Amino acid sequence: MSETTPAPAPATEASTVTEAAPASAMPASLAAAAAEATIVSSPSKTPAPTGPAAVSGFSVKKMDRGILTLNMDKNFYVSEDNQELLDIVDDLSSTTPQNVLLTGPQGCGKTELSLWFAAKYERPVIIMNCATVRETKDWFGYRDAKDGSIFWHRSDFVRAIEQGNCVVVLDEFNRLHSTLHNSLYPLLDGRRSTFVEELESVVVVGPRTVFFATANIGFSHTGTHTMDSAIEDRFGYRLNVDFPAVAKETDIIASKTGLTREMARKLATFGQDIRRKSTGL
Q1: How far apart are CA 27 and CA 49, in angstroms?
Q2: pTM for this entry
Q3: Buried-most residue among 21, 191, 256, 278 (CB within 10 A)?
Q4: What is the pLDDT of residues 151-189, one digit of tens each?
């Protein structure tokens, strides 16, 4: 499995595996959309969110700290092939572990594709900001004090995987050092459980839990780490997400903003030109 992919890729060079990109993943000047609040869970302390919110175009139906239930974004585009593949992931999650690795250029909709999966199949979702993990125990919670006593606070990550039927998004996964993968190995493979000393109990992944990991791979991305074969082997699917062709991007912009098709086409072409120039091709 290749360790490097060019980024960002021109919209015309769409992957044969997947072609998914939401209008919300485009620059604001293209989509002309209002800014949306993004809720991302930290592996440690997670403050209770307040008020209405949206995550990358997906409005929040229900909020349980860092665990969200989302409404569909009707403007999000996923190719028929990938819808069929993710249907299979949904079906097989009842009987076998399902882990999906999403790669592709920044801003093409990797995180949003996992949110689309959660919204379509009506599953709660938690987005883990992997860049904030500094120690292996950070996945499972943090020490806290109350009424003169010290106790271990169970993380939203643990709550999410234990409840089952949940989508767990390991966002920017390759910003984790390889040593921080170790505690995830038994959760991602067939064991689907691990003993956590601080909790003094075994954490068991609930049924129908699906893990998605997103990664920007390539030498142009600073602060990232190479994923070893032990962790990559635990992801049964690897999808390369790319920008849609101009015609499809035109449809998305027109639907999202209400602009005329001619103006939407100009913006889509402009966006494609910027992406092509950024690659030097």
Answers
A1: 26
A2: 0.76
A3: 21
A4: 888 899 999 999 999 999 999 988 888 788 888 999 999
